Amino acid sequence: MEPQLYGATIQIERTFHVDKSGSYCLKSVGGKVVSKKRQDLDHILNHFEIQVNNPVFLMNQDTCRSFLNSKTPKELYAFFYKAPLLDDLEKLVEDTRLQADESLTVVHQKEEEMKPINEAIETWRKKQAKCIRPETIQKDIDNYETDLKIKDCHSLKKVLDDAKREVLTAETNLADHEASLVRSEEKIPILEERLQEERRKEEELRAGMEGSSKAVSDCRPEMAKLRAAVQDAQRAMNDCAGELKEKKRNLASLETQLDTARNQQGLQEDDQRRIELETRMDEASTRIEECRINRDAAAADKRRLEEELTDLKHRLEPILNVWNAEQRAIENLDQEIRKHQGTHGGSSVVARLGREAVQRKQIIDELVQRNALKGQILGPCVDLLSLRDQPYSAAVERAVGPWLRTYILEDERDRQVVTEEFRRRKVSPPTLDCALGSGQKFPTTEMAFNDKCNAPFPTVADLLTFKHPYVRNVLVDALNLHQIVVMPTLEQARKHFRDGQKFPHCRYILDLTANQHSSDADGYQFLPGQSRGVSVLAADFEAQIEEKKQERDDKVAAQETKREEKQQLEGRIKTAQHQIAQKKLELTKLQDLENRTQAQLTGMKNDLHSMKTSQPTDIQVLLDEMEELRGVVEQLQTQFDDLKDAHTKAKSKEAKADANLKAMKEQGQAELRQQDQILADILKLENSLERNEADIQNAKKTLAAKGKEVEARKAEVETKKAAFEESKQALLDSGVPIERLKVRVKRTQAELEEMIHQLETRLRLINNDYENSWEFCQEKLDDLISSKTSVEAQIVSAKKIVELMGKNYRLRAGNFTVARDKASETLCACFQTMMEDRQYDGRIELDHEARSLTFHVNPHRKTQQEDSSIKSLSGGERSFTMVSFLVALWQLIEIPFRVLDEFDVFMDMVNRDIAMQRLIESAIESGRQFIFLTPLHFSQAILDDFKTSASVEVVRMPTSRHTLPAVGVLDDV
């Protein structure tokens, strides 16, 4: 809008046409037409927030009477909806929502337009990524050619470093061998001294054993005398017992005679029975005593035999231990010899692993010859490595372990082929390893391990030479061979730890002299490097087999010398066990006899106590003789008891002497075991001395050979150094930076040459094909990116519009709801107030959901009747209700003119006065123009009120011949 076109005043003219249409005209302050466009009018109305849709309101008498009666609730609601322009507001809200939806649709369309653009950009970028600029290719060709030269230089450098390392290793080995030789020579006097000491101990022990043997021999005659004394005491006791038995029989005979005499006197029954019981009791007591004496003698013999058996078992135990140890050693040697039988003298390293390894090798060789494998196969690993220093063979074999029998595959798919072939032949397959995957080849370069142990001792990786670099990479990486240090002795290793010399990256330590696994407090693991078996890595494999056979024959011969002594002791043990069993049987029989006799004696004593005693008759001679014989029996009984005590004392002395003899025998056994231990130590020292002397001889030969090897390698180092310096100087002269020479080239020479050829071919193709070049792709990308930027800007702008219109829609929808509710509230309140002025009950019911408006009017308020419908009202009541509705509706609309024509013709005087008074008051309050045309008269009171108001003018129309006189009220506020 241009304000200067209108000036200080804007005039709006609306023209109503016969066809009920209308038009607008915008004029300036001078009356000049500026615009007739509706959008310019809307812009002005929105700016000033006014409305001109209803500039004038007209109502005649027919409309006033029939409007409420003829219109439906929905039409009344539409009339109410249109008066305050709620329909325009609702349409504006709906238009806003539609515009927001249209804008959102535009955003979606633009986003859909972006998809093919993005896809095209991605396609051209991928195509450009595949394109290479000629300058880049030429630069890569130059770099690869330089890498080829650097590769050659590095190869010379590697050869030189390897040669230097070999020289250093050879010198280190030479120094180690010299130190080992010195240590071995220093060990010989120590071993000889220890050997002499052990021999001296053996001589002293032998002298002590001779003394013990002599003491045992001296003790034996005394034991024989004691046994003879015991036997003499036993015989004397037996003689005394016989004489005592004879006297008791004589006494029994006299008692029989006495019984006969008593029987003659009439007392023979009881006395005879009593005498018979006493005689039998004496015989039973004698038998019990004899059983006890014989049982004690048998028990003593049994104890003596058991002690003899224990002594024999103690003598046999060390012999059996030595026998079993030698038997196990012989079995181990037999197993070791059988394992390596058929190895053709040990000429083949694979054959040293046994027949099964040879059979596996043959099967895999057949697969290779048939071209059944897609890739290369290496193995077993024992055939792909060699040992630099032979003294370390057992330790290195201990470190490598089962990997010696492992095969390494180049293609993972060959694993199934090999396994199926072995399963078909019913042979256990070997261990297979493949870390490359399918389709890759064995690398021909050795890996560099930066975590190598820096101990001043050789590692297992240093002691091995590998025939293939990949085998070296696999074994060193899998077993950490570069972190396993080999030390001559465990004491030397622990000395370094005690001195605080920690070894970074050191995991395990192989001790050449140990045969047991141990650990250190610092976490180092000491693995045993000593092996009793044959080492397949040793150069003297055949000599080791022969040595094992000779060792077995020596052990078999030594075992045969001890067989006779072992069998003799076992025979004596069996005899002693048989005699002990017989003595146990004899003791059981004597015990049973004693128990039975004791039971008989107890029964006879009970019978004797139950008998009645009788007084002897006058048989004095027999009684005197019996008394004399009883005295003799008592003397013999006393003598027997004395002999029994003497026999017991003799047995006690014999037991003490026997215990002393047993102690001396046990001491002899201990001395014998000590002698066996000393002899074993002497044998071990002699073997160590012989082995050390052999090591010294071998070390001297090795020293001479290694000295020559060191000199030859030094000369080779000088030659290789000159070649390397020449290659390096040529590269520097060609402009290659010195820093680049230090970078290692990872690709092989064949790979570099192949890449140079491929790049040259690609360069020629690129120069001949512009449409597939990098520059052409960049041009396409620039066009697409420009289009994408434009569309993205449109999308951003459209999204902003959508967001703004969404906010506007929500705001307008909220304002519309508030305006509609406020208009409804105002309409209902004004209508109810107007009706109350006439003492009517009237209200308006608005249903916004159903879009209906209903009047409820009760003109008979005092009768308390229900609300009447509009149709039941009289004409005046309907007119008054209509006027009340219009007055209430006028509170909601802003129009400059309102005209009522003959609206009161159907009202009575009271309703007309009240309605007119209310209309005039409303007109005065609103400040708008009202024109009321009526043919009727008002009361004088109302006219007086009109005349007193300066805003009301009463105009009387001239009397017409066809019309009644009319009164008009004109409000020119």
From TrEMBL:
UniProt keyword annotation of Acetylation present: no
State its location(s): Chromosome; Nucleus
**Coiled-coil residue spans:** 153-315, 619-653, 682-709, 738-769
> Any idea which GO molecular function terms this record carries?
ATP binding; damaged DNA binding; single-stranded DNA binding
Oxidoreductase in keyword set: no
Q: Which Pfam families match?
A: SMC_hinge, SMC_N
The alphabetical list of record keywords is: ATP-binding, Chromosome, Coiled coil, DNA damage, DNA recombination, DNA repair, Nucleotide-binding, Nucleus
State the superkingdom: Eukaryota
- Classification via SUPFAM superfamilies: P-loop containing nucleoside triphosphate hydrolases (SSF52540), Smc hinge domain (SSF75553), Tropomyosin (SSF57997)
Q: InterPro entries annotated for this entry?
A: P-loop_NTPase, RecF/RecN/SMC_N, SMC_hinge, SMC_hinge_sf
* RecF/RecN/SMC N-terminal domain: residues covered: 39-934
Gene Ontology cellular component terms for the protein in this record: nucleus; site of double-strand break; Smc5-Smc6 complex
Region of interest called Disordered, as start-end residue ranges on this chain? 548-571
Residue limits of the SMC hinge domain? 377-495
What biological-process terms (Gene Ontology) are attached? chromosome organization; double-strand break repair via homologous recombination
Similarity-based family = Belongs to the SMC family. SMC6 subfamily.
Q: What protein name applies here? A: Structural maintenance of chromosomes protein 6
Source species, please? Hypsibius exemplaris
